[in-house]
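Justification of resources, computational component.

The compute hours requested in this renewal are based largely on the per-chain cost of generating structure records like the one below. Each record pairs the submitted sequence with a full structure-token output. That output is archived, and it is also reused by downstream analysis tasks.
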Amino acid sequence: MAIGSSVQDTKASCKSSQSIDLQSFCQQQIEQLITQYPIFFARIVYYDALLKSHKEVMNHAQEEVSLSQEILSYLRSEKWLTEYPSFFSLNRISIEAFELNCYFCLIGYRNQKPEYIQVITKELLSPALEKYLSQSAVLLSKYLDIYLERGQQQVKIQLLEHIIQRAGHQLRNSLGLIGLYAHNLCLGLQDSPWQEQANIMRESIQELDANLTDFIYCGQSSKLKVSLQDLRSLIEETIKLLQPLINQKKLCIRLPDTSIFLAIDRSQMKQVFDNLLSNAIHFSPEAGVINCSWQVFQSEVIIKISDQGMGMSPEDIRHIFTPFYSRRPGGTGLGLTIAKKIVLDHQGSIWGQNLLGGGAQFSLILPRTKKD
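The structure output for this chain reads:
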């Protein structure tokens, strides 16, 4: 059956590629409904959370005569919506003036207006088609929830990008001033036994400035260099760099014998593990144990890093990813904020919690392959 389509507010929807994805999904849902005889017209009204407005998508069979403006105006007026039935229950309205049957199925209420699927038929629907229409409404509702969650995640990413840019600018100004003094100190200490230490200070500042540049641009989706990486190898590399601190506290770090390959940006994810392991080392007691583990669940892997420290307070758990919140003396409070941003940009999730036996644990869920 050939299908014709009409989409309202197309220009507004095109402001966001995600909005286009949502619009396309609604169009596909309608096309599937239209192919089910005797449905010859279908309409979806939904709330686009990113554009903050309600949208309408409607299709009709090409061989059918288009609905008149009078009928469309009546449908859009929602005067037929005299009652508010439960979600996903199919409701029939007889449009006597037009000798048509109208069915609608509510999928939710957002921004004080209903979302629903609506179909027009000349004959009554069979029980099988009624069930099919209700199932389509459930599917659409779940997709809208996923779309909303994805949009909220993008907002968080943008906020974190803004915070990182501001923090980086402030820190770079301070580093520039310290670097200038370190350079002058080197010049003033020529032929002095202290010159070597001054040189070390200057080189350390240059290294910090380079790392700060990486932090500023970290986690930007357009800059991710994703490739398959050995997870165990990556964590072992981090442990090697932290070995002096590990030896100082006589800690034991346990890793699984087996590894797994993930589609990640190696340098970005290394920053995540650097931060998580550094925190675990800092809060671990002398001769404590830090456990690292991972487990595969279909297309995702969950990674856990736990310590035997004092754990986190309720306030810590609430604010642990909040910028500039830190329990470490001299900490910037940006490490976990940046770690979360990198994980989000990899389309994963991260959270912290206390263990029943004591200590804290951070968990990450990452996709095993790159998601478009």
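The domain at 224-372 is CATH 3.30.565.10 (Heat Shock Protein 90). Residues 1-17 have pLDDT under 50 and may be disordered.
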